[in-house]
Automatic annotation (TrEMBL):
It comes from Alkalicoccus urumqiensis. GO terms for molecular function: proton motive force dependent protein transmembrane transporter activity. The keyword Transport applies. Belongs to the TatC family. It is found in: Cell membrane; Membrane. The chain crosses the membrane at residues 21-43, 63-90, 102-132, 152-178, 190-207, 213-232. This is Sec-independent protein translocase protein TatC. Its main location: membrane. One of its GO terms (cellular component) is TAT protein transport complex. Keywords: Cell membrane, Membrane, Protein transport, Translocation, Transmembrane, Transmembrane helix, Transport.
Amino acid sequence: MSKQSREMEIVEHLDELRKRIFIVLGVFIAAFAASFIFVEEIYDLLTKDLGTQLVVLGPLDIILIYLSIAAVIALAVTVPVIISQVWMFVKPGLTEEERKASAVYIPVSFVLFAAGILFGYFIILPLVLQFLLALGEGTFQTMFTADRYFQFVLRMTVPFSILFEMPLVVMFLTTIGVISPYGMQKNRKYAYFAIVIVSVLVSPPDFLSDVLVILPLIVLYEISIRLSAVVYKKRLRRLREEEKNASSGSM
């Protein structure tokens, strides 16, 4: 390939990358604008079960809270678009096998992303919040500032939306031969150690919160091993069939 051809190919890749970035930014801006229009309704929905009004420490905090809520909602809406645009960008460089695998996994990743957020918001968040409130009952007068509360909500939901993608990532990497279930079993203790570290970092600084984050992640890791084993067996079967067909064709 000549130098001029390489330069043209690089320019085409950059143009394609710019196109994908503009699409992502366009979706984010549109989602942000729509979220900000209905931000008061979203705020009421997020705080309706709290049982108390949130406090702000200054007039600018109100607009900052609204902007933060709109940005988070817009980001959540944009994540599936980011995944799809990344896939479309790298698709030309993938093998046929990798294209088929990713085409199946990408829609499932959207479902897992949403499931992670719902799990964090409806299961982990209420449990941790009730526990923390119970610690201070009768001793402290509880007063939530809006920014602290929404930081807490984000820490209890967003990490799960990412971590719930673990089984899918494992299945994809197994399909293309990067990892195997045997390697995951062999390195289980190191994986558990990494899970503990991540859980402590993303959860509030109390033992119960750490446990409530660690246990689901360990379960996800074990599920990932089982799914990896299923995919690994199918991959071995397919490779044997390909070798058999190749030997038959060479005869």
